[in-house]
């Protein structure tokens, strides 16, 4: 089975579990007597992080050495692809979500610490963006592009040039995934359990809605194209 088919199949099941987590997170935010909200919120947070870690682990396994699948993932809708930054969402996207969901609940100390994480995240994003641009320039250079066009005719020495570039691309994407995880973990470490659940519920809502809207638009465009033909 092709790598994209493997991950597409996994993603379908993962999104079903994502919807289930979203419902759990939302339920914890509804006032109900007779349970410790902080305790219950604390319990679900590591489960949600484990769910996301499963996504990144399976993505890396399915893609294997084909980094081009991560540049334009075939399992995403056109809208979702428009949001991509180095094979995933831009880590700093979570800060507007924080502002819309828990900003009013934050203490002065929490705001200061979150601002420090925001600054560090943006600094690392700039570094990774510049590094990615350098890698892409290398891949697009005429000599290497010519080698890629004649890949099957290459000798071992020429192969190594392409292999090195592909390894750099793969490393950049792995670093970007690590930054996404680091930013989310740092933010949740600053928030209280209830604040974290509000934040994670908002992130889940955004992801699920972006997926639904993007898939619907792609289906509509597909129907229009079919009808025109």
SSE run:
HHHHHHHHH
Instruction: Assign an overall shape.
Output: globular
Task: Give Rg in angstroms.
Answer: 21 Å
Q: Can you count the helices?
A: 9
Structural class, judged by helices and strands? mainly alpha
Helix content: over 70%
Q: How is the biggest beta sheet arranged? A: none
The fraction of residues in strands falls at: under 5%
> How is the quaternary structure best described?
single chain
Count of the separate structural domains: 1
State the end-to-end distance.
31 Å
The overall strand count is: 0
Which regions contain 5 or more consecutive residues with pLDDT less than 50?
142-149
Average of pLDDT: 85
InterPro entries: Seed_Dev/Stress_Resp_Reg (IPR051886), TGA_domain (IPR025422)
Domain DOG1: 4-220
Organism: Rehmannia glutinosa (Chinese foxglove)
Pfam family, one: DOG1
